[in-house]
Design brief:
There is one protein chain. By secondary structure, the protein is of the alpha+beta class. Helix content is about 35%, strand content about 30%. The longest helix has about 30 residues. The protein is elongated. About 35% of the residues are buried. Bound molecules: adenosine-5'-diphosphate and magnesium ion.
């Protein structure tokens, strides 16, 4: 089986490719910027470096939010032909905190209380009643940038005036007290294969490794593991990093990362996450190919309406084989139209014929 990774060329992707080469027959590392989607109205095609993309059994596509729409388009076109661990719609959902929280809400995944507003006035109404501290987020932020903490209405109010300048909806969220920690759970399919607890720097509330946070291995209880998998499924990703806060009311999900780094978590946990991804992709590709082969066979059988046989003549009459009679679903009561010429006979239901 052959596979490809579509990425922005990160070290994490490079490591994953190396591990995938150990299990797949061949693996290509494709750069996202060299992809093109060609839509012709009647058909569509993906080009790589200007040439039609090779046929793959598995394509693991990832990239930053800037490429969310392109990744959605590419996986939509390639999805029916190969196994893709991230559903097309997930790219636009996962890179937008507003849509992601909506999915968590619909799937009943526990999350902090969240409001979405577009104007400073609407935000201030909520902020007047909200308990402090309160968190505010830009929908497309990553690495902890775009996440703000306000200790009082006064500071929240001036942040909101700045946020409103962006002229886009933003999130106001209940602050979950965790002592400056969060959990990064690495989800593959139905399980969490590695998890780390990240601790924010002193004087910092964001525990992202990119914000200077430090990670160490942690074992998740069944409930936390369950909500991590639930969040991944809600978004439509079989491979992702889920951020969880262990608050006083239990675990809550704050984010699903579709392009999670693997070095930090591998180092913190001692688990080779790249190897786990490679083996997972291999097994899921095998399963998907088998499923699709089964479906294709079924279709072939249900479509089989032709048989090759000798005709059964009763004097001048032709007796049709039982299977053919059954397939037509003709009944004795209905009228049919027979159309015959040399070497051919067609029998059609009269009403169908008249249509
Ligand atoms: N509601 C919250 N309560 C407490 N801390 C939070 C909350 N939301 C985010 N944080 C902190 O900020 C970090 C970044 O938030 P997150 O929503 O994961 O955005 P990003 O995409 O920037 O990583 C989290 O890892 C966590 O440490
Ligand atoms: Mg995060």
């Amino acid at each position: 089986m052959n596979a490809a990774i579509i990425s922005m060329g990160s070290i994490s992707s490079e490591r994953t490719v190396e591990e995938m080469k150990k299990v797949f027959d061949s693996v290509d590392h494709l750069n996202i910027v060299d992809l093109e989607v060609s839509m012709l109205g009647t058909s569509e095609e993906i080009l790589y470096g200007g040439k039609p993309l090779k046929q793959y059994d598995c394509i693991y596509a990832k990239g930053s939010g800037r490429f969310a729409n392109l990744l959605r388009a590419v996986t939509t076109v390639l999805g029916p032909e190969c196994y893709t661990p991230i559903r097309p719609g997930a790219f636009t959902i996962g890179h937008d905190k507003l849509l992601a929280h909506l999915k968590f809400q619909v799937a009943k995944v526990p999350m902090p209380r969240t409001w979405v507003v577009s104007t400073a006035e609407a935000a201030k109404k909520i902020l007047k009643k909200a308990p402090y501290p309160v968190v505010m987020k830009v929908p497309s932020g990553t690495h902890g940038k775009g996440v703000m903490l306000a200790e009082s209405y006064e500071s929240a109010s001036s942040m909101v005036d700045a946020l409103a300048l962006l002229r886009q909806p933003f999130l106001i969220q209940e602050y979950v007290e965790t002592g400056g920690t969060d959990i990064r759970a690495f989800v593959l399919g139905d399980s969490v294969v590695a998890a780390m607890k990240r601790v924010a720097l002193p004087d910092e509330k964001r525990a992202n490794l990119h914000a200077g946070g430090a990670g160490r291995r942690t074992e998740l209880d069944d409930r936390t593991e369950h909500i991590a998998v639930q969040a991944a499924k809600a978004v439509g990703a079989e491979i992702c990093g889920v951020d969880i806060l262990q608050g006083p009311k239990g675990p809550v999900v704050i984010e699903v990362n579709l392009s999670p780094g693997i070095q930090g978590i591998s180092k913190a946990t001692g688990i080779n996450v790249g190897e786990k991804i490679a083996k997972f992709l291999f097994e899921r590709t095998k399963e998907t190919l088998a499923e699709r082969k089964g479906e294709a066979m079924k279709e072939l059988v249900s479509e089989a309406k032709q048989i090759i046989t000798k005709l059964d003549f009763r004097n001048e009459r032709i007796l049709l084989p039982g299977i053919i009679t059954k397939l037509t679903k003709f009944s004795e009561q209905e009228d049919v139209v027979m159309e015959a010429n040399k070497g051919q006979l067609k029998i059609k239901n009269f009403l169908e014929f008249a249509r």
